[in-house]
Design a protein that fits this description.
The chain is an alpha/beta fold and about 425 residues long. Helix content is about 30%, strand content about 25%. The protein binds 5'-O-[hydroxy(phenylacetyl)phosphoryl]adenosine.
């Protein structure tokens, strides 16, 4: 059902008049800049270096004057160096493991948790979830923000929450069926795993009351959406967020599925040229920079996310006044350079899934041979094709051509046995880099 959330008071800010929104944003921004300046040494030092005082921020157009924050700032001040309130005010800590070394640590005051609960509640409402639904949360609970973030949002909506966490996929499928679950929140790769598990047990998810999936924490393509929706009968919603800013609930798709609405009353988006730091106009693709407009434990001002997208400012048919971002198909960190060509794993996924009969389970390995970079991509066979060598070879050729047409590079494809690629229960690791440099 479309726009069924308009009547829900929790969603009122999604339809705020844009002038009123800008007034609210400026007021919150000024409070945050003052709070960070007074309480975070790193931020104050950078402001002083630039000769800036909090009162110099008089309009939203002054935002680009402020210094950027980056992930390294969190690592350099590990664990608590960016906290802006005393520990007695902090009621929750989360951490994200990242790729190397120490995790980054994030913190919340009671007021911060209220904001998070609200934006996650609004997110789930935008996906058509209400107090009448049973919601299974299969993001990992713990230091990862996915589990508890989605949990609190679903509870705020008054839905019946099944806190399944990740793992034990057989039990997940059992819960989906036995509890008559209506909505599931997990990574898209984990949902694929559940679909496979259900298949193995002869359970057709399309026959269950399951109707909505809220998927995020990793990039996924339109092709992946189609596969999942077709095999499970659900409507899939893309949800975006990151620990540094709050966790899940920064942006979500509405029923139009044409970009993700950013909760701009709490998160101010900018797009910059990743090389020069210059702010780009709406519509142009670049790095997403976010400012948290109400985050007291750890204010993040002009935080460079490394995620590439563009801002869509045209009005959405759903009636929300919040601007949208395009699906985050990629992180600048995930890009690899292959023989001089920039390649994103999502391009390879898109190429594979354009081919009918290709499975969405794949793994990319980069390796060096005779001093040259090589890419090998393994794609699983659909069980029904197993043993039919002619069809398998035809599939391999089609995938090779499809990926070449998108990326411009010729990739070595290997079709492997069904279920031979390790399944993910959280964020999938799609690329293994064995190159020697
Ligand atoms: O992944 C928060 C989250 C949990 C979002 C559950 C959505 C659902 P981190 O572990 O800090 O936090 O990872 C954040 O994951 O900068 C993106 O690169 C990526 N990411 C998150 N959501 C999406 C998405 C959580 N919908 C990093 N599409 C971000 C693409 C995403 N990438």
């Amino acid at each position: 059902m479309k726009n069924n959330d308009k009547a829900n008071p929790i969603c009122a800010p999604d339809y705020i008049d844009r002038d009123a929104l800008r007034t609210l944003q400026l007021q919150r921004l000024r409070t945050m800049v003052r709070h960070a300046y007074d309480n975070v040494a790193l931020f104050r030092g950078r402001m002083l270096d630039l000769g800036l005082k909090p009162d110099d921020i008089r309009s939203l157009d002054d935002l680009p004057k402020l210094p950027f924050m980056v992930k390294k700032d969190l690592r350099d001040t590990y664990p608590f160096g960016l906290f802006a309130v005393p520990m007695s005010e902090i009621v929750r800590l989360h951490a994200s493991s990242g790729t190397t070394g120490k995790p980054i640590v994030v913190a919340y005051t009671k007021a911060d948790l209220d904001v998070w609960r609200q934006v996650m509640g609004r997110s789930l409402a935008a996906a058509g979830i209400s107090r009448n639904d049973i919601v299974q949360i299969s993001y990992g609970y713990g230091l990862f923000t996915g589990g508890l973030g989605a949990h609190d949002g679903a509870e705020a909506l008054g839905a019946s929450v099944v806190p399944a966490s990740g793992g034990n996929t057989r039990r997940q499928v059992m819960l989906l069926r036995d509890f008559g679950v209506n909505a599931i929140c997990c990574t898209p790769s984990y949902f694929l795993h559940m679909i496979d598990q259900a298949d193995t047990e002869g359970i057709d998810l399309r026959e269950l009351p399951l109707r909505v999936g809220v998927f995020g924490a990793e990039p996924w393509t339109q092709g992946m959406r189609e596969r999942m929706e077709q095999r499970s009968g659900i409507e899939a919603f893309d949800i975006y967020g990151l620990s540094e800013i709050i966790g899940p609930g920064v942006a979500i798709e509405c029923h139009e599925h044409d970009g993700l609405h950013i909760f701009e009353d709490y998160f101010y988006p900018e797009i910059i040229d990743p090389d020069t730091g210059e702010v780009l106009p709406d519509g142009e693709v670049g790095e997403l920079v976010l400012t948290s407009l109400s985050k007291y434990a750890m204010p993040m001002i002009r935080y460079r996310t490394r995620d590439l997208t563009r801002i869509i400012s045209e009005p959405c048919a759903c009636g929300r006044t919040l601007r949208r971002i395009d699906r985050i198909s990629t992180r600048s960190d995930d890009m690899f350079i292959f023989r001089g060509v920039n390649v994103f794993p999502s391009q390879i996924e898109a190429g594979i899934l354009r081919v009918e009969g290709a499975s969405p389970n794949y793994r990319i390995t980069l390796f060096t041979s005779h001093g040259m970079d090589n890419i090998a991509v393994e794609v699983e066979l659909q069980p029904e094709m197993y043993g039919d060598d002619e069809r398998v070879e035809e599939l391999r050729k089609k995938i090779t051509a499809s990926v070449e047409s998108i990326t411009g590079i010729r990739v070595l494809f290997k079709v492997v046995e069904p279920f031979s690629i390790e399944r993910s229960e959280g964020k999938a690791k799609r690329v293994i880099d064995n190159r020697t440099r």
